[in-house]
Amino acid sequence: MLSNTNRILYFLTSLALLTSSNIFAQIDEVNIGKVSPGEVDMAAFTLSSSGSVSISGKGATFGHWEEEMAFYGWILDSETREVVWHLREESEFDEDEGIFEFSADVSLPRGDYEVYYAGSVRNYIKISGWGDFWNNMFGDNKYKASYRKRLYMTVEGSSNFRVVNPKELVDEKVDNAIVSIIRMGDYEDKEKSFTLADDTEVRIYALGEGRKGSNYDFGWIYDEDNHERIWTMNSKRTDHAGGGRKNMLVDRTMTLPAGSYTVRYSTDDSHSYDEWNVLPPDDPQMWGLTLFAVNESDLDNVKPFTERERVQPVVELVRVGDDEFLSQGFRLDEDMDLRIFCLGEGSGRIMADYGWIINADTKETVWKMNKRRTEHGGGADKNRLFDDVVSFAMGNYIAYYTTDGSHSYEDWNATRPIESDRWGLTIWAKDKSKRGSVELFDESEYKNENILAEIIRVRDHKEIDERFTLDSDTRVRIIAVGEGDRSEMYDYGWIENARGKVVWEMTYRKTEHAGGARKNRLFNDTILLEKGNYYLYYETDGSHSYNRWNSSPPDNPEMYGITVLIDN
After folding, report:
1. Phi/psi at 497 (5° precision)
2. Are 268 and 380 in contact (CB under 8 A)?
3. What phi and psi, each to the nearest 5 degrees, are found at residue 508?
4. Is the Cα dihedral 166, 167, 169, 174 positive or negative?
5. In this structure, what is the dihedral angle of CA atoms 41, 242, 150, 27, given to the nearest 10 degrees?
6. Max Cα separation, the chain?
7. How far apart are alpha carbons 304 and 302 in whole angstroms?
């Protein structure tokens, strides 16, 4: 038997539980809002059957910093990702109006829905000074921070209406995706890899930031078997994602052949799921990239990716910092196609951080990162990328990469590029079965047996000589890089015989442009020398020499000087 006290406690507890249960059972509305500019509040609900929902609240528009500042809400169909109602499309939504009330009744089919409320400006704003900032923020009829407490949106339903968690709703949807990278914040890089056992049709659903051919927050897909970027989110081939003009959307299908893939997504330092500096997109939670299988049965094709499936580079000169110079020798035992990924810095026609490859035996440049043949590397416009396949003949090569004194790995003076950890030069064998035909060697100890004499990497105020001997009449190749104009040569070389007679001299008339500044000159040709002893000379003036350039360096700065070798 319960005592009177226990009976009372039991009654009160039961009443409290019953009341609490009824309160939760009667929750048939969502309330969001009270956001600051750049913020988005969200909620979600599900309808167990078709029906009508009532929408009400307060929005606002302000003529702010000569741009429209707006506080507004919308509803998204969680399955189709399409907007089913948007306040900015309603007739009462007018610019420069201030705070206004709104209400609407919308009929919706059974399903899940996400509700959003945002505060932001239409396009990115610039403030010329503190006076503009103060006047616009606190002047008459302008937006005041206290207004946000009065701005909200409510969605109400009836018995078929149930409140759900908006993040869990989206998470459940992408759980069935092949791969998903969403809710990306500022300065993030994420990647996920997978393997397909068979050809699979996929739906690419991606949101990001870009404009005028430049991409800032975007994703791409790599074919790991060939290390080839097979799809890139590009602002020129995207749709508007709603909100600010720079919000871009991709919603398309493509077929991926059986193989291994990596999906990667990169963001810059502003305008992301963390905080929006213009009106946010209509689908803010999906800021990122998601791959869905068009046919659900094809999910059986998706297998885990293991690191041993990843194709390893044959040369890797990456994560390069300021004022660095890196090199690596490599030997190809057969003709081969190489994929070159070179990420560097360039503006105008000049490359400041860049790579190149020379033939170790002939000293000729066989490939160089040239700004005209690069694409935007993401982030700042000066981030440049070369990503293509180049054919190489069997032989010995040296890869180089150099940087200037600013904007490099982990010390960016502007927005970093995509794949910033690959700032530098990376080379893969396009056919991974030929990976074993590549052998690395120490380029500092490599000596071409055909070289007779060499004076290279010459600095300012130098006069250097080398002696060489020919046992018979020999045709030799002279490679000379120097500085000069039509009136005279300033950095140049020449050859004298044992009697002190000049038998060859580098003159402007004999040279051609060596790349970079017009004054960079190149001689690369053969001459016939008689049997005997010779002296090779090279002389520089007080400016523009190896690693002391006062204008753009030549295409092959390592060869600045003169080299004589037997011509085969």
Report:
1. -85, -175
2. no
3. -60, -40
4. positive
5. -50
6. 129
7. 7
Q: What is the pLDDT of residue 133?
A: 41
**Any residues with CB less than 8 A from the CB of 466 and at least 6 apart, and which?**
453, 454, 455, 535, 536
Structure tokens at 361: 């035996």
Write out pLDDT tens, residues 296-333: 999 999 999 987 767 789 999 999 999 898 999 999 99
Contact present, 190 and 206 (Cβ < 8 Å): no
Note the pLDDT tens digit of each residue in 180-233. 999 999 989 999 999 999 999 999 999 999 987 778 899 999 998 888 889 999
385 — phi, psi (to 5°)?
-135, 130
Residue 555 tokens, joined: 């295409």
> Which residues fall within 8 angstroms of residue 3, CB to CB, at 6 or more apart?
none
DSSP-based three-state secondary structure for 15: helix
Angle formed at CA 426 by CA 371 and CA 372, multiple of 5 degrees: 10
**Other CB atoms within 10 A of residue 475 CB:** 11
If DSSP codes are grouped into helix, strand and coil, which group holds residue 135?
helix
Angstrom distance (rounded) from CA 138 to CA 77: 38
List the one residue out of 386, 369, 370, 383 whose CA is nearest residue 414: 383
* Rounded distance between C-alpha atoms, residue 562 and residue 549, angstroms: 17
C-alpha–C-alpha distance, residues 249 and 215, integer Å: 12
Measure CA 145 to chain center: 35
Give the domains, in start order, of the chain with CATH numbers. 29-165 (2.60.120), 176-308 (2.60.120), 312-441 (2.60.120), 451-566 (2.60.120)
How many CA atoms lie within 13 Å of 488's alpha carbon, on the beta-carbon side? 4
SS (H, E, C) 446-479: CCCCCEEEEEECCCCCCEEEEEEEECCCEEEEEE
Structure tokens belonging to residue 380: 């700042």
Query: Residue 271: which region, alpha, beta or left (left: phi > 0; alpha: psi -120 to 50)?
Result: left
Q: In the 8-state DSSP scheme, what is residue 349? A: T
For residue range 420-434, what is the model confidence (pLDDT) as tens digits?
Answer: 999 999 999 988 889
Residue in this structure with the two tokens 């909100």, named with its chain if needed:
243
First-to-last C-alpha distance (Å) of the chain: 112
Say what the pLDDT of residue 122 is: 65
What whole-number distance in Å separates Cα of residue 21 and Cα of residue 480? 89
Beta partners for 87?
A: none
272-286 per-position pLDDT tens digit: 999 999 999 999 999
Token output for 202: 């996929």
Residues 559/561/565/568 CA torsion (nearest 10 deg)? 50
| pLDDT of res. 392 | 98
Taking 70 as the pLDDT cut, the residues of the chain under it are 1-27, 63-68, 91-96, 122-146, 309
- Distances from the Cα of 457 to the Cα of 252, 460, 462, 486, angstroms: 52, 10, 11, 24
Environment class of 527 (CB within 10 Å of its CB; exposed 0-12, middle 13-18, buried 19+): middle
**DSSP H or E stretch at residue 16:** helix 4-25
Q: What pairing do the DSSP bridges indicate for beta strands 259-266 and 288-293? A: unpaired
How many helices, marked H, and strands, marked E, lie in the chain?
A: 3, 38
